[in-house]
Amino acid sequence: QVQLRESGPGLVNPSGTLSLTCAVSGGSIISSNYWTWVRQSPGKGLEWMGEIYHTGSTNYNPSLKSRVTISIDKSKNQFSLRLNSVTAADTAVFYCARDGGYVSGFDYWGQGTLVTVSS
Amino acid sequence: QAVVTQEPSLTVSPGGTVTLTCGSSTGTVTSGHSPYWFQKKPGQAPRTLIYDTSNKHSWTPARFSGSLLGAKAALTLSGAQPEDEAEYYCLLSYTGARVFGGGTKLTVL
């Protein structure tokens, strides 16, 4: 059974960098899947942030493109999110997910982790 | 960036049928947009109901179905249950990016 688990600081200073990691267990990150980050700010809807394939190929939300980086660490079977120059508007619950595309869709999700941007 | 539109809220009676729709500012939604539908309840991770327009996961209740309806993607719930009360989000794929709709709050009442 594949499991995803997000980890990282729950509090980030304004203008700082938000860094999260998603550890994948029960399956290999080197597979025909896209590894995705989604967030939900308080009282708001879901926002697709970006995705990465095991080759390192990435796609990002254009509204975040200048601030977001998604990377993959095959040796640790995990992938990561970095969001620069954060403000209070970046406070959200962040989810990582596996997207199997037309084969299986978003079939596995992490439980989500709350990151608050505040001094 | 494209804007994906959903009804802000809908109400359905227990046992009733309701259709949620998902439109795109770029025009007609097609299978090429690979529509996904998610159910989201407070404090829980999203749960994928439908992927690639109409495909269901093993955990998707049979009362949910996905389709293309006119110029939009659609999620139909037939025989609503109290536990179906939730937010529902569609996700469309565009070249190089994906976009969520604003969500539909579904009330079963």
Question: What do these coordinates show?
Answer:
- The complex is a heterodimer of chains A (119) and B (109).
- Chain A is mainly beta and 119 residues long.
- Chain A is 3% helix and 51% strand.
- In chain A, strand 5 (46-52) and strand 6 form a beta hairpin.
- The longest helix of chain A is centred in the C-terminal third of the chain and has 4 residues, at 101-104.
- In chain A, 39% of the residues are buried.
- Chain B is mainly β.
- Chain B contains no helices and 11 strands.
- In chain B, the strands form 2 sheets. In chain B, strands 2, 4, 5, 6, 9, 10 and 11 form a 7-stranded mixed beta sheet that branches.
- In chain B, strand 4 (36-40) and strand 5 form a beta hairpin.
- The chains are: A mainly beta (119), B mainly beta (109).
- At the A-B interface, strand 5, helix 1 and strand 10 of A face strand 4, strand 5, strand 9 and strand 10 of B.
Strand and helix map with partners:
The complex is a heterodimer of chains A (119) and B (109).
Chain A: E1 3-7, E2 11-12, E3 18-25, E4 34-40, E5 46-52, E6 58-60, E7 68-73, E8 78-83, E9 92-99, H1 101-104, E10 106-109, E11 113-117
Parallel strand pairs in A: 2-11
Antiparallel strand pairs in A: 1-3, 3-8, 4-5, 4-9, 5-6, 7-8, 9-10, 9-11
Chain B: E1 4-6, E2 9-12, E3 17-24, E4 36-40, E5 47-51, E6 55-56, E7 64-69, E8 72-78, E9 86-94, E10 97-100, E11 104-108
Parallel strand pairs in B: 2-11
Antiparallel strand pairs in B: 1-3, 3-8, 4-5, 4-9, 5-6, 7-8, 9-10, 9-11
Share of helical residues of chain A = under 10%
Mean pLDDT of chain A: 95
Q: Fraction of residues of chain B in helices?
A: under 10%
Q: How can the largest sheet of chain A be summarized?
A: 7 strands, mixed
From the helix content, strand content and strand pairing of chain A, which structural class follows?
mainly beta
**Extended strand count of chain A:** 11
Overall geometric form of chain A: globular
Distance between the termini of chain B: 36 Å
User: For the report, how would you describe the main beta sheet of chain B?
Assistant: 7 strands, mixed
Q: Averaging pLDDT over every residue of chain B, what do you get?
A: 97
Provide the β-strand percentage band of chain B: over 45%
Low-pLDDT regions of chain B: none
Low-confidence stretches of chain A: none
- Rg of chain B from C-alpha positions? 13 Å
Overall spatial form of chain B: globular
Biggest protein-protein contact in the assembly: A-B, 24 and 25 residues
End-to-end separation of chain A in angstroms reads 39 Å
Structural class of chain B: mainly beta
